[in-house]
Write a structure and sequence with these properties.
Blueprint lengths: L1 H43 L3 H21 L10 H27 L2 H8 L2 H11 L7 H19 L6 H25 L6 H23 L2 H15 L3 H23 L4 H23 L5 H20 L2
Helix pairs in contact: 1-10, 1-11, 2-3, 2-8, 2-10, 3-7, 3-8, 4-7, 4-11, 5-7, 6-12, 8-10, 11-12
The structure holds 3-phosphoglyceric acid (3PG).
Length: 311
């Protein structure tokens, strides 16, 4: 009688893996499209605080409409839920705006090479703030991750300090976001999709006043006119695409976070960066020196070793 039970278990495990595989592939594909449109928009309209706000606003709107017309069931939330969500939303807002500021200053590939160092931040935060310990192999894998990122940074042809720091801040913020979200999602009846919807709404509330103070409507209006005169009226579709795809890729990533640990999530996120780095280099004709590419490859290899060591 044990045999059929075992076969059932193997089958459901395979189904789970296939499901996660589909989530990952969709997440990565949507992310590539987001990154392309986001950079196209930022090249013509360098206002990352506004574009970050618009992507959160678009996601919030999509979800409010989905709840209203019942494509998705609205979550039942209480004050406690929003209180627990608040630190996650602060981390999400900081990580999002910092990455977008970074991408407004440097090549998309450079931001993502630095962001491939996220597992290193994850280990350091877990070790020094949460007191977790890891096997020696995990610490060793940080050497190629950090070394590779450093090599890619010092050999970057268009290095910019704000671009570099933005990506570093985003790494740190997202590690906290992932740790807090997983804690917040545990045992809650709110699904990954609705959790991300609430996160977008709260982040939008947090970010809007800052975006107005940092950039403001006057700069936006002037910038918009310049962008439309250079690109044409279809510029608005680029903005719409970056906003919609931002929401979609994050929504799918949160649906997968429902099923996996924050650690696996970080690894999936880093592997995603390979497709973003390669496609953005091709599309934007980003100049890359061999030593620069070597740095990126070492960092990504480090992440692979890290994933093996944490298993
Ligand atoms: C953002 O704007 O939030 C970043 O581009 C996203 O970074 P991620 O690739 O870590 O989701």
């Amino acid at each position: 009688r044990l045999q059929p039970i075992k076969a059932e278990e193997t089958k459901s495990e395979t189904a789970r893996r296939v499901k996660i595989g589909i989530y990952f592939a969709t997440w990565w594909a949507l992310n590539v499209v987001f990154n392309i449109y986001n950079k196209k928009v930022l090249n013509a309209f360098p206002f990352p605080w506004l574009t970050s706000t618009l992507s959160l606003a678009c996601g919030s709107l999509i979800m409010l409409v989905s709840w209203a017309i019942r494509i998705a069931e609205a979550p039942k939330t209480d004050f406690e839920f929003w209180k627990t969500l608040f630190p996650v939303a602060v981390a999400h807002t900081i990580g999002h705006v910092a990455a977008t500021v970074s991408m407004s200053k440097v090549a998309v590939s450079f931001t993502h090479i630095i962001k491939s160092g996220e597992p290193a931040f994850s280990v350091l935060v877990s070790r020094f703030i949460l007191g977790d310990t890891f096997p020696a192999g995990v610490y060793m894998s940080l050497i190629p991750i950090i070394g590779g990122c450093a090599l890619a940074a010092v050999t970057e042809l268009n290095f910019n300090m704000i671009g570099f720091m933005g990506a570093m801040i985003s790494n740190l913020a997202f590690v906290f976001r992932n740790i807090f979200s997983k804690k917040g999602m545990k045992g809650k009846s709110v699904s990954g999709m609705n959790y991300y919807a609430c996160l977008s709404m709260l982040s939008l509330l947090i970010l809007t006043p800052f975006a107005i103070v940092v950039e403001g409507p006057q700069m936006w209006t002037a910038g918009w006119q310049t962008a439309v005169s250079q690109i044409g009226p279809h510029f608005i579709w680029w903005v719409a695409a970056q906003s919609v795809f931002y929401h979609l890729y994050n929504q799918v990533s949160y649906m997968s976070l429902d099923e996996i640990s924050p650690l696996t999530f970080s690894i999936g996120n880093t592997m995603k960066r390979i497709s973003v780095i390669v496609s953005s280099i091709i599309i934007f004709h980003t100049p890359v020196r061999p030593v620069n590419a070597l740095g990126a490859a070492i960092a990504i290899l480090g992440t692979f070793l890290y994933s093996q060591a944490t298993q």
